[in-house]
Amino acid sequence: MKLTVVGCSGSFPGPDSPCSCYLLEADGVRILVDLGNGALGALQRHATLGSIDAVLLSHLHADHCLDLACYFVARKYCPAGELPRLAVYGPADTHERIARAYDVEGAIDNGRMAEVFDFRTVVTGTFEVGPFRITADRMPHPVESYAFRIEAGGRSLVYSGDTGVSDDLVRISRGADLLLCEASFEHGREDLPHVHLNGRQAGEHAERAGVGRLLLTHIPPWTSRERNLDDARKTFTGAVDLALPDASHTV
Description:
Elements: E1 2-7, E2 21-26, E3 29-35, H1 39-43, E4 54-56, H2 62-65, H3 67-76, E5 86-90, H4 94-102, H5 107-110, H6 112-116, E6 117-121, E7 125-129, E8 132-139, E9 145-152, E10 155-159, H7 167-173, E11 178-182, H8 199-209, E12 213-217, H9 225-235, E13 239-242, E14 248-250
Parallel strand pairs: 3-4, 4-5, 5-6, 10-11, 11-12, 12-13
Antiparallel strand pairs: 1-2, 1-14, 2-3, 7-8, 8-9, 9-10
């Protein structure tokens, strides 16, 4: 699998990165994991808007889903012709959330959004998209939020989504080649264990799960990337790096 970090800023876009969006490629199939605000523009440095085969949304906070409303415009009104209907996997109310964000009058009732997106509800369990085998599990967060274990070609990547401290994250990450883990908080500054992780906690989860590599993401502009990286290295004995915009990784 090839992972490209389209956006990795937490909570709101930073000066050098849009919000959460990750491009995964395997066997000619391209999927997006989250599509937060600002990400659609940056995506076009790495893929054409018509080349995406599916979108996975971990949850419906704006920094993880809002650019799907812009993507509706790009696919619906493309001058070369409307793009094919695109599968979108997300929580049960994804259709309503995106329609309201775009403010389409009657969008839910008249199905305009559904003309462009094939909304499919994510629940705890496993499904397949092309060569990707995807396992979803609920994580602790103020809204319905999922982590995804994504496997293809004998390799595995886990994306934490937004999560607090979670034994379930350890379980779904067990033995993964790469854990793409949020580290929104700073150790000693914020203490909301059911909302987000800090760098130290991300490292602890990775160590308990025995993952191959840890990639820290979803760090807000007001939080030190270097501090969280240093904290994660204190608790995880494997390789730790920062997710950086436009960087690619082979899994």
